[in-house]
Structures are given as structure tokens and as C-alpha cells.
Amino acid sequence: MTLFIYTTAQIGWLLTTQWLGGDFLCRLIKFFYTFVFYLTSFVIVCIAVDRVFGAYKLSSFKASKKAFLRCKKMLYIAWGTACLLSLPQLYIFGVVSPPDMPGFRQCAPIWMSMKSQLEHQASLPEATEDERIFLWHEYLEIGFWERSYNITHLLFVFWFPAFAIVISYISVLCILKSFSRPSKAAFKDFKFKNTIISMIYKNRSRRNDENNKYVASVTSVNAMKDDVTAAADVVSTTQCLRAVSEDHKDEDARSLILMEGNQTGKVLRRSFSAETKPTSSLPVIPEQNRESLKLTLKPAEKSKVGSMAMQTIAAARLKTKKQAAFILIAYLTLWTPYNLFAIINIFIPTDSRGYFLNRIMHFTPFLNSLIVVNSLINPLIYGVFDRVSKQ
């Protein structure tokens, strides 16, 4: 729409230097001018908000089913809001012919025509002082409504969308960071991944009364290089401590660590020195209950997501940072000249406005045309990052 409506009409208007399309086409074209500007900003906001919902419901299986419906609703709202905010253009704009140039017609806002008529009436020789004062108050009132409309237009077409885009992408990064933050247990497991760490566990209730309690124990083995290299690099460890009975408390306490490898199935044993303090009496775990024990063991602390998911989230967070940076830079760079010119046009004093407009009149079409470039760049940004993520 930006290319076929705004660009085509703007090129024809620049070639003819005046409006030749009539009053109805003037109002319709100005309506679509503002409509495509609003729609460009609102669609970018919809994409940013959709990224927030997608990051927030990252682990939900039903998120993909609701995403399509949510996008449709947001696009309907964007189109409806853009159309509603553009309706005043049908009343504001029209074909205007200056009093001193009867044959020249231009598509201009209605307050420009009203101001021109008031200035012409105030410049007449037969106008009294009271009439000039009355005309001046009307002139100021028209300027107030013009300024209010332009400020509202700038807020909805640039500043509110820019604020929503920034907040949305910051929220996405914060959500991804919270998902990828590991817990203390995951950090310790990563730090000591080459060391055999005993599990802390507690047995749940069992049908067999003789094995109704399993006491948590912690055992660290620091020097087992020769034995560990003989086994597989990655082993699934099931540790069982056998304590001496009450009749053998005076004897040397020995604890055995049984390790079952995934591949070789070897059992590695290491006995502690005689100086090791005797441990408390622990029940011996029968062979038939070891498999059920594996299912009941849980880490004391868990990370929010697994290691593979953490890597995926880290890559998504890096991609989101780059994409957000490119989108914000493109949006601010290409929209700032248009909004800067509009702000200066609103707040510049009336006596110096004509001089300022004459100085930058040659650059105005170029500054306004940068918004069209934004509509071309945004699909390229999203397309490039989506292609990189698929590869």
C-alpha cells in the first residue's frame, strides 16, 4: 500500500506541481497517506507484541494454536485503529486556491485555507480595528486546533509505537534471560562435571517394610583418575553405601561405591582408609529395588530448563538482540526526520515559520519519502533473521 498508493500519488503530484485530481480524490489520497503511515507503525508494534507473547509462553504446547488467532486479532485492531485515526483527513483536506492565485489549485488542509481567508479579510482597507482583533482571535483558535491535531498525529504515528516497540523487545530479552538462568545445582553440576558427586536422596514409602527409609548421604571421590579412564566417559551412577552393623562398630569402617557404566557395565570399587570415621548404620538396598530407586531420585535443585533448551534460548536471545537493534535503528533513523520537521513546524514562531519553510522546502519531499524506505527495510530485516535462524 505504501508503494502503490503513497509513492505513485506523490510522484504524480511532484510532476504536476499542483493538484489536478479534484476535491474527492484529494481527500481520499490524504486519507490513505495517513492510513499507510499509521498502519506501518502499528504492524511493527503487532510484531513486537507477538514476540513478547511467544517468549512468555515458550514452554506452552498450546501457544502455537493461539498464536495465529492472536496475530489476526492484533492485525484487525491495527487496521481498525489506523482507519479510525485517518478519518479526520477526509474533513481536514480539500482543494484550496489562494486568493492572489485564482488558477492555482492545491490539495491542502482546511485551516490553511481558513487562515488565508482571515489574513485576506484583515488586510482589507475597510476592515475596522475591532474586526481585525476578532479575526486575529479566530486565527489563533484555528492555530490551536491545527497544533493539537498535529501533536496527536505525531504521538500515534511515531512516539507511542516507538515506545511500545522498545518496551516489547526489552520484555522479550528479560523473559529469555529468566528462562536461561541456571540454578545453583545446575551450576555445580556443570562446574564439577569431571568429578563423581554423590546424590542426596531420601527414600519414599515402600510396600516392603524392610526398605521403607533411605537416608540421604554425600560422598566425594577426588582421586580416581586411573579407574575412571578405564570406564566410559559418561556413566550413569547409582551409589549405594553399605554401613557396618552395630556389632562391628569397633572394626575399621569401610564404604563401597558401586558404579554401573552405560557401556561396559564394570563395577569399580574403592575402599577408604582405616582412619575413616564409622558411619551410621544404613539398610542394604536389595537388587530388585535399585531400579525403582533410580526413578525416585531427584536433584535437590533444578534448572528451569535443560541444557539443550538453554543453548537454544541463548541463541534466540542473541538473535532477538540483533533483530531488535536493527528494527529500532531503522525505525528511528527513517522516521525521525519526518517527525523532527513536523515538530519544528508545530512549535516554531509564526513570524519565522515562513523563512524556515522556504529554506527546507526543497528537502521536505525527501524527508517524507524516508518513511517509504522503512516499509521496504522491515521485511528484509525479518526475512534475513528468519533465514539465518532456519539455517
Automatic annotation (TrEMBL):
Compartments it resides in: Cell membrane
InterPro entries referenced in this protein's UniProt entry, alphabetically: GPCR_Rhodpsn, GPCR_Rhodpsn_7TM
SUPFAM superfamilies according to UniProt: Family A G protein-coupled receptor-like (SSF81321)
Keyword annotations of the record: Cell membrane, Membrane, Receptor, Transmembrane, Transmembrane helix
Main location: membrane
Domain named G-protein coupled receptors family 1 profile: residues: 1-382
Membrane among keywords: yes
Coiled-coil region: none
GO biological process, any: cellular response to hormone stimulus
One MF term in the entry's GO annotations: G protein-coupled receptor activity
Residues passing through the membrane, by range: 31-53, 74-96, 154-176, 325-348, 360-385
Membrane topology (UniProt): Multi-pass membrane protein
GO cellular component: plasma membrane
PANTHER family per UniProt: ADIPOKINETIC HORMONE RECEPTOR, ISOFORM C, NEUROPEPTIDE RECEPTOR-RELATED G-PROTEIN COUPLED RECEPTOR
Name recorded for this polypeptide: G-protein coupled receptors family 1 profile domain-containing protein
Organism expressing this protein natively: Panagrolaimus davidi
Lineage: Eukaryota, Metazoa, Ecdysozoa, Nematoda, Chromadorea
